[in-house]
Amino acid sequence: MDIQAYISSGIIENYVLGATTPEENAEIERLAQEYPEIQQEIEANKHALLAYVLDFAEEPPADIRDKVLSKLDQLADEEETDDDNFAIEKEIANIQEAPSRQLFPFKTYMVAASFVLLVASFSANIYFYSQWQQTKDNLNVALLDKQMMANTLKTQTTKQSQVLDQVKEELAILKSPAIASVKLASVDGAPSCSAKIYWDTKTKYVYIDASKLPEPPKNKQYQLWYIDGKNTVDAGVFDMGKKSGHLQKLKLVPNAQAFAVTLEKMGGVPKSEGDLYALGKMENETREN
């Protein structure tokens, strides 16, 4: 038996509120003896309902009282209509003989009293059950908000940790004695721009800081090239936007005398087809800070 599914069905709340059938009561009580979790849930609901009533006790809506009083008046009218003149005279005689006797038969009052208790009990059950459900809904919303806040905090913490790791990695690259750097300046005819290249002469990987390049047109992408003697070789494409402010790792560069940035179609090309934007030559020094 799936205990949690049974508890989540709401039948235990109905049982505590008195809104279950005798058959359901018998089943719940039997299961409570067999499964401690169900018994604990029953006790928890009883305590929660009691705490709620004590904390938020208020009279049931006034229309419940009006309905009960109206029903009592109806019962009295029906009793009077059903009596014939003989019965009325007899009742008057009985009253004269025994003034302490009530106007209506005892049975009528019993029926009325039973009806009052039934309506009051049913109305109270509905009233408190609705209040209990509202309290549970409010609690669920609060728990959901708390979970969402926890998830948001966890996500933010993860992102911050990732950013911190990236910054540490970039600092390690910049401080490495194996790094040679070169500044790329805009060429004649191109928009004013620049870029910074960091080439790891040990691992041979090249990194680019593209923060000072303009955003490319739609369906276009910047591509880095390295010049080795007379050969111009693809060094990879790179992204703009938020990534442009960070070092982006591109391809291996075995040897290079200069680097260039061109604007190509999205995804890059094996041989340059676009406009040249920036160019820079390697200095004799191994690095530039």
From TrEMBL:
Localization per record: Cell membrane; Membrane
Keywords, comma-separated and alphabetical: Cell membrane, Membrane, Transmembrane, Transmembrane helix
Pfam families attached to this UniProt entry: RskA_C (PF10099)
Any GO CC annotation of this UniProt entry: plasma membrane
Keyword Ribonucleoprotein appears in the UniProt entry: no
Keyword Membrane appears in the UniProt entry: yes
The protein's name: Regulator of SigK
